[in-house]
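Researcher: Before we compare anything, I want clean individual predictions. No alignment, no superposition, just each chain on its own. First chain goes here; please echo the sequence and then give the structure tokens.
Model: Echoing the first chain and its structure:
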Amino acid sequence: MADKKKILIAEDEEGIRIALAEELRNQGLEVIEAEDGQKALDMALANHPDSIILDFIMPKMHGKDVLKKLLMDDWGSAVPVIILTNYTIDVEVKKMVEEKEQIVHLDKTEIDIKQVVDKIKEMVK
């Protein structure tokens, strides 16, 4: 049997992080969690998850900076990332989303947990 796909949830809002983690685990995925940007970057580079759900407004390091640092890493430049935020992404981030097919932006205010889980499952097939 294939190893479980590992997902990193980088989200400082505990309720959202817990709900996402529970639903992903119910779908048979392994989940690791980070509540701030620096921890998210450290965990991503140490654990090499199959995909990352990345909030932008987080303590210690903004998600945009996490994304930029990931893109400087050989592994990180290829990992699928869902930017899940209600932060209005700027021109620089829009360009990253357009140029890298493995980076997707989803607005927290326009999507529910099931849609996020479906997108993650699609990205880690």
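Researcher: Okay. Second chain, same rules.
Model: Second chain and its structure:
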Amino acid sequence: MRKVNFKFRFRTGFTLIEILVYIAILGILMTVIFSFLIWANSTNIKAKVMRETLEDASRTMEFMVREIKAAKSIYTPTTDSDQLSLETTKYLSNGEATTYIDFFLCGSQICLKKESEAPLALTKENVQVNNLVFTQISTGEIPSVQIELGVNYKSPSNKPEYRAIVNLTSTASLRAY
């Protein structure tokens, strides 16, 4: 009986089909990873824009409400207006003095002007005010002011992740001394 000797030859390396399958799988994985990174970046930008717009509008609104509450009187507006003027008390070392504060739109920002000082922008440059209305409300003896504030983000491009609009309304009354 004759002995049959089988020799198996193992090939080393990859076939062209195997390489093409690996490249296709790698391409799909890279596409999924890059799509996720682009989506995550876009979501992060949108959250940042919304947060900056809301924080700026809230900070400005809180500042105006605090000044209204500390004022002695409101001498404008008599009707709806985009300017508010307050009579305040300034405490000096030799006593008290009456001063005036004005809130108004200067360009696309809300400005504060104290008597004999240059106007100071309250809102940041990356947001623009699209609505500012002060309405005096009669609630008896203590005057109140309703503030309507609309702010949107100044978009460097027309991309949707750079769009944010915040509308706030608040009412403040003078403190009864």
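Researcher: What stands out in the second chain?
Model: The two ends are 123 Å apart (CA to CA). Additionally, Strands lie at 73-76, 83-92, 95-106, 109-114, 120-121, 127-138, 143-153, 165-173.
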